[in-house]
Amino acid sequence: MTFTLPVISSSELSELRSPSMVIFKERLLSNMDGMLAMAKSPSRLRPHCKTHKMEQVIRLWVQRGVTKHKAATIAECEMLANAGATDVLFAYNPVGPNIARIVALAAKFPTCSFSVTNDHERPLRELSAAASAAGVAIGVMLDVNVGMDRTGITPETPGAVELYALTAKLPGLRPAGFHVYDGHQRQLNLEERKTAVAQQWPRVTELRSKCEVAGAKVPALACGGTPTFPCYAAMSDPSIELCPGTCVFHDAGYGTNFPDLPFLPAAAIVTRVISRPAADRVTLDIGNKAVAADPPRGSRMFIPELPTAVQEIHSEEHMGLVTPDADRFQPGDVMLAIPMHVCPTSALYDKVAVIENGGVAEYWDVTSRNRKLTI
Ligand SMILES: Cc1ncc(COP(=O)(O)O)c(C=O)c1O
User: Fold this and answer.
1) Cβ neighbours of residue 177 closer than 8 Å, sequence gap 6 or more
2) What integer is the mean pLDDT of 116-131?
3) pLDDT given at position 2
4) CATH 3.20.20.10 domain range(s) in the chain
5) What integer pLDDT is reported at residue 108 of this predicted model?
6) Which of 117, 148, 243, 254 to mutate to test the pocket of ligand 1 (most atoms within 8 A of CB)?
7) What is the CATH number of domain 46-243?
8) How many Cβ atoms sit within 10 Å of the Cβ of residue 198?
9) Best substitution site from 181, 182, 341 to test ligand 1's pocket, by max atoms within 8 Å of Cβ?
C-alpha cells in the first residue's frame, strides 16, 4: 500500500521544527464527512477521542451535531465536557481514585451526562456509593467481552444479567446499555469482518433480552472501533452507537490493513535527515519519542519519499534507514512520515501544526495528553 499526503509549501515546510506533528485540516474534515456519511446520522456516532486528544477536534464534531463521545482517560473526559460534548462515556472500567474522579467530573459538568463501563460488582458498588454521596447519577454500560478477552464479561457468564440489573437498583447509577468493543475483529476482507460481527451479534442481543426481562433497560449498545465501523453502520438495530477512533486521522497501519475504509491519512510527522553514516544509510530525527514504538520495529511509519527503505534502527531519537537511494539525500533535507499507529503518536506531542491550503493555519493543543487537567 502506498500513501500520498497533501503538499506543504516548501517555504513553510522548511520553517517547521522536526520532529513535530502536522494535521492536514482538509483531510481531517474529509475523514469526518466520511464518518458521518458511513454513520448516516450524527446521533449514531460516539467517536473515541483517544486518537487525537484535541479539544479543537471535539469542537468540530460538536459543530457537526456529534455530541456523544468516548474516552479512555479522565483527562479525555474532562476535555470532552469542556469542548461541548453532552454525553461522555468513560470506556475504561473505573477503579480506585478514578471512581471519585468521574463523580467529581459529573458534579463539575451538570449539563453533561457521564457514563462508565463496568464488569464487576465491587467497583460498581463503590461507584454507587460515591455518586449517591455526591448527588449525581452516573450511567453504567456493562462491558461485554465478545472475544477480545481484554476486559469485560462474556454474555454467557452466570451473573452477567444480575450484574447489569444491579445498576438499575443501586443509588446514584442508571443502566446505560452495553459496551461491545471488538478490537480482535481485524479480518482484512470486509465481508469476512461483517460475517464475524454477525456471528457474535446474537450473543449480545440475547443478553439484552435477558436483562430487559430482569427489569433493566438497555438503551444503547456502544459498538466496535474503526475496522468494524462499516459492519455496525450497516446494521439497523436503533440502539447501536458507532465508536471509531483512529479513522478521524487514519494512519498507515489501518490504511494498509483495511483498504475498504474510505479514509486517508490526515496526520504526519515532520522529520529531517541528520546524518548519512554509510553509503546506503539515511538517519532521520524521528526516534521512538517522535513516533510510537508500535507496531514492532521495522514498520513504524510510511515515508512517502522513501517507501521501500528498511527501517533498521529505531532508538529514542533516531530512525536509521537502509536504502539504495541514500545518495539522493543530505543532512538537512526535510520530509514527512505517516505513523503506522497514529493514536499513541499524537500523545507524544503537546501541540500540532494545522495545515490548510498548503500552509500553517494555526496550532492546536493536544489537550488531554496530560493525565490530569483539573480533576
Ligand atoms: C474501547 C475502545 N473503543 C473504541 C476504540 C477505537 O478503535 P479504533 O482505534 O479501531 O478506531 C478503541 C481503540 O483502541 C477502544 O479501545
Assistant:
1) 141, 142, 218, 219, 220, 221, 222, 239
2) 98
3) 84
4) 46-243
5) 98
6) 243
7) 3.20.20.10
8) 12
9) 181
